From TrEMBL, chains A, B, C, D:
<feature type="binding site">
    <location>
        <position position="281"/>
    </location>
    <ligand>
        <name>FMN</name>
    </ligand>
</feature>
<dbReference type="InterPro" id="IPR020541">
    <property type="entry name" value="Chorismate_synthase_CS"/>
</dbReference>
<feature type="binding site">
    <location>
        <begin position="125"/>
        <end position="127"/>
    </location>
    <ligand>
        <name>FMN</name>
    </ligand>
</feature>
<feature type="binding site">
    <location>
        <begin position="237"/>
        <end position="238"/>
    </location>
    <ligand>
        <name>FMN</name>
    </ligand>
</feature>
<protein>
    <recommendedName>
        <fullName>Chorismate synthase</fullName>
        <ecNumber>4.2.3.5</ecNumber>
    </recommendedName>
</protein>
<feature type="binding site">
    <location>
        <position position="54"/>
    </location>
    <ligand>
        <name>NADP(+)</name>
    </ligand>
</feature>
<comment type="similarity">
    <text>Belongs to the chorismate synthase family.</text>
</comment>
<dbReference type="GO" id="GO:0010181">
    <property type="term" value="F:FMN binding"/>
</dbReference>
<dbReference type="GO" id="GO:0005829">
    <property type="term" value="C:cytosol"/>
</dbReference>
<comment type="pathway">
    <text>Metabolic intermediate biosynthesis; chorismate biosynthesis; chorismate from D-erythrose 4-phosphate and phosphoenolpyruvate: step 7/7.</text>
</comment>
<keyword id="KW-0521">NADP</keyword>
<feature type="binding site">
    <location>
        <position position="48"/>
    </location>
    <ligand>
        <name>NADP(+)</name>
    </ligand>
</feature>
<dbReference type="InterPro" id="IPR035904">
    <property type="entry name" value="Chorismate_synth_AroC_sf"/>
</dbReference>
<keyword id="KW-0456">Lyase</keyword>
<feature type="binding site">
    <location>
        <begin position="296"/>
        <end position="300"/>
    </location>
    <ligand>
        <name>FMN</name>
    </ligand>
</feature>
<dbReference type="Pfam" id="PF01264">
    <property type="entry name" value="Chorismate_synt"/>
</dbReference>
<dbReference type="GO" id="GO:0008652">
    <property type="term" value="P:amino acid biosynthetic process"/>
</dbReference>
Amino acid sequence: MSFNTFGRLLRFTTWGESHGPALGAVVDGCPPGLAISEAVIQPFLDARRPGQSKFTTQRQEPDAVRILSGVFEGKTTGTPISLMIENVDQRSKDYSEVAKAYRPGHADYAYDAKYGFRDYRGGGRSSARETAARVAAGAVARLVIPEVAIIGYVAEIGGDAIDLANFDAAEIGNNPFFCPDAKAAARWEKIVDDARLAGSSVGAVVECVATGVPAGWGAPLYAKLDSELAAAMMSINAVKGVEIGDGFAAARLRGEDNADPMRPGEGGPEFLANHAGGIAGGISTGQPVKVRVAFKPTSSILTPVETIDRDGGATEIRTKGRHDPCVGIRGVPVVEAMMALVLADQKLLHRGQCG
Amino acid sequence: MSFNTFGRLLRFTTWGESHGPALGAVVDGCPPGLAISEAVIQPFLDARRPGQSKFTTQRQEPDAVRILSGVFEGKTTGTPISLMIENVDQRSKDYSEVAKAYRPGHADYAYDAKYGFRDYRGGGRSSARETAARVAAGAVARLVIPEVAIIGYVAEIGGDAIDLANFDAAEIGNNPFFCPDAKAAARWEKIVDDARLAGSSVGAVVECVATGVPAGWGAPLYAKLDSELAAAMMSINAVKGVEIGDGFAAARLRGEDNADPMRPGEGGPEFLANHAGGIAGGISTGQPVKVRVAFKPTSSILTPVETIDRDGGATEIRTKGRHDPCVGIRGVPVVEAMMALVLADQKLLHRGQCG
Amino acid sequence: MSFNTFGRLLRFTTWGESHGPALGAVVDGCPPGLAISEAVIQPFLDARRPGQSKFTTQRQEPDAVRILSGVFEGKTTGTPISLMIENVDQRSKDYSEVAKAYRPGHADYAYDAKYGFRDYRGGGRSSARETAARVAAGAVARLVIPEVAIIGYVAEIGGDAIDLANFDAAEIGNNPFFCPDAKAAARWEKIVDDARLAGSSVGAVVECVATGVPAGWGAPLYAKLDSELAAAMMSINAVKGVEIGDGFAAARLRGEDNADPMRPGEGGPEFLANHAGGIAGGISTGQPVKVRVAFKPTSSILTPVETIDRDGGATEIRTKGRHDPCVGIRGVPVVEAMMALVLADQKLLHRGQCG
Amino acid sequence: MSFNTFGRLLRFTTWGESHGPALGAVVDGCPPGLAISEAVIQPFLDARRPGQSKFTTQRQEPDAVRILSGVFEGKTTGTPISLMIENVDQRSKDYSEVAKAYRPGHADYAYDAKYGFRDYRGGGRSSARETAARVAAGAVARLVIPEVAIIGYVAEIGGDAIDLANFDAAEIGNNPFFCPDAKAAARWEKIVDDARLAGSSVGAVVECVATGVPAGWGAPLYAKLDSELAAAMMSINAVKGVEIGDGFAAARLRGEDNADPMRPGEGGPEFLANHAGGIAGGISTGQPVKVRVAFKPTSSILTPVETIDRDGGATEIRTKGRHDPCVGIRGVPVVEAMMALVLADQKLLHRGQCG
């Protein structure tokens, strides 16, 4: 089966392949009257755009978004918003190798097993280019939750983590890694460049924090805020793990160390810790909502890997072409977009049920 | 909002509170003609049942399941299967303290913030007792996927992990921890008992492996097999993290070390590794599907914790009563049930689209 | 496939068969804080209850509803409300004839064709007894829309229609036909009794009007208010047609005769007609929402009908047992319930998107 | 709320307004491997296309469809199929009158009441132009059900019905009314032309029959085949009534006259009548599936109608511009498309659950 729609009240549907004429998203259920234009959406796409440094793929895509519906006189009308991004730089290359053999770690074999054949050009539907459509949809979602500020950043590359003592949000935009720790960013230059030059790749951990989320958003039990975030993040290409708050580290704490004590505060409780990542019982607590996302190293590498061809015969493949040596870096705007989409949906769900 | 239904073709809806008269699940979309009876479901509930050792809550619940619909002459009819479990041991106790003050780490404050009030008896709807209904539904799901074998176990308690060299699946049923490593089980006795006696609690990591899943199950992009598993697992009480395959460890590998090379095998490719946990591009590859789930330490502890009362005033609370010192242990049958439910749903989805 | 859940934010799932131990509904997404008890729901079930006159089936069912979850201290909590009705009068009879041969007009053959076999006792899941669960769910839905008054009635039996000049809403409860026209009710006594005595049956048309619905409810395009009402009504057993406002009669009008002119009124426009039945573009206009529903004559008749048996051989069947000679009569509370459920859902949807 | 997605496994989402740059549909869940191209879809759009006779609107739209995704080497890939149709003939006219005052019978007032404002150009999202996207999606759905033949036609215009004795399917394409009765078509010329010249409009009844549907499709209880068809048809602009089989006429029959007796036939039962319209218990019986749909007269008429303006003041409006004098005529391809979409979805649902 294929399910290319996400969300419950604020829903978006994405479509498109890496090497098709275009890709896009239809955002449905958006409240009416929100000021919007291409200029509001474009900066988020620009942040995700490839080819901006040597640390990401060299494919040159303007990723210019066009609004085709759902907007009138500069405002959302409450009807579906169709967003389209044309593909420009589908370099004409020879895909015969990828067409014939399966790249380990890629979706090649799985797609063939499921559908009988696949659009192999640049990964087709399984390409990370699809995330451009999510980022565009996420920009719409942000308009629904003006009370919320979302900050994403890379917390770790190739096992080398940032030092929280150096955390400076203003730094995130100053380096090609969305890194809030200038010293780590300096180290990562070498790590990523080494991988790139070796035709290898490295993994990364992305963190995303949403502040301003009021207590009460979340739809227990099977659309819990954390459950929806987990689904959203795990649906991103190359993601293999999701943590809320302390995540796996919480499994190593004792109960008293994992508690988030409360005391009276202004306009609600003041929490003395946030091990829970701002979510209890699937509902926001008013604390910052925090998620951590693990990106595996890009599967496209120059080292030859043992594999099979479409006929089941033994062969070997090395993935030439333009690839991100660390796909997690450009994952930051995508993680932020998914956070925005989940929160906006939950806000509407909460308003629907609880008024 | 409240969403108590999970699944797309095979859907289940759970209902019930910790201290209400009963709880249950309605399983809809189950294929017809499957042999079923209460006796088929009960063993899974028995595995999750509390009060079986000193390492779990002492609440005594038979958790006897009753099938109220959807079955005729011992077979599923294709119509909704209603499963009910009566609550028996709702000990009459004084809940006035919990009614007045919020237990940090619990859903108390969040539920109040969302709904304006809450059923505070035993945690109400946010109680882990709800998972009994999932386990019953999961037993039905297993009938849908006879080709799949699911094994869950505790891999780590309080930071103390099993040694894979000692892994013995037959050992899992021999100790009260669902532990496949006899030596670790022996160590955990002390860890959990110490926590219990201290009125504290410890966290755990549960692993679950499904073998026999054919290549091709999964519904990209927003109902990817891994995305659905992440949502399913994160919806379980006390879960804070989910990993597929190597998870966060994959973020520390280089591309060539994370590859799962293939070579020709019988009836499909032979994989030389399984870093991916049996899923690529959101679709099963035919390898074992592997998920890891982090359970935080039980929030109910005897140590007093700073908190606020319903009026916003400062107070302190310690949670008396019957609780699991390590809620992850009884999480094993729940994780297995969610694995079964996701896989059964994906099997039907795949059959629906791809025939 | 089987889909036993209806609704988008306010959702209900029904389960149960005619001759099983019980049937029920789980209502999910209900706003919190609404005063509720069994006593609030029971009167609606009593109105639908069989055995109250010779014009309905003689099966004696108290249809006593029990609330199993979702309510605390007399108020809805926002969590799923489980409602159960035990079956009492499953008369032990010989179903061997129905088991072997297909009753034309019934779902017997279709269920076998779909599922391979069926629970043939009393129609199993396809029995009109399922509608008891809808009526219980509808009683909950009414609490969500206190601003709306819903009145249903039979407008036509066996082709004999009420005279609008005689319409008196107070009359509806005074006769066994939910008939607002005392003269028609008198005529219908003979029509229905004749059919009953002849072992035959007659059809009916039910009308339902909801006043107090504000302008703005409806979810274009594929969950339009009228589209949802059509789906809701057509899902009721024996229903073969649905009209909104003038329905098919509108297809015979010219544009100027079908217009509903507006002029300024207090608190909104005053409409000079209501051909549209209170819905334009799938959205309520503030006028009364009006739906008409056609019920076919009960398929269970004593006249022998040519049919086939399970092995495909020719045979003949006459349906003995207890049946409604005019199933449309008891359809009135069901149509009202579905109206309430759709409106309540649309109210929450509107609030979710538009605040 | 806004729900622009229809379907459960085979889902389509439409977007676009009458006077926006384009409109389209995303079809998700389509099985892989089906031969497709723009040329396969275009004929269905051509049948619906305006401006082909004086009996429909004179707006000139080529309605050329473009496939943007989901197709590779001429076959569906199983991923979402994005279809786009550019608007060409959005005549620049003065909409100030429509912007200020509400056209009775149109969605103008309802949209404003719901969303606070509206895209008034040509009806915006509520325009019948949206149905072009449905027709394109329906063409994809037809590929999923090659065993089914769908024939739609106009059965009645302005109260003048076809004579079944004259029914000739081959005639449907020979006149501008999709009329299977040549004599009726001749009469309708005058009826529709009179209405057109008078600036008035007439209603119509469309019938649609699907043959080749095997027994067993349908998803009881709340996605019954007839319930889904009712929702699908009632979601079409200007539709006010839906009948399955005999519909309201069945409510005037006695049970023995409404029965569809069965006798042994080749490859299944032979039915001696089809009052049920091919559906029993919400499941197809193998007989032709038959639906009747009532279209009201176009609300856009030249006769001035009393109305109010956006400020609530009294005014009067006559709708100039290009309109269909009988919107039901071009409803035929739309009704067929919705029939195809529902049947294709139900086929996949059935295969998913019942294998």
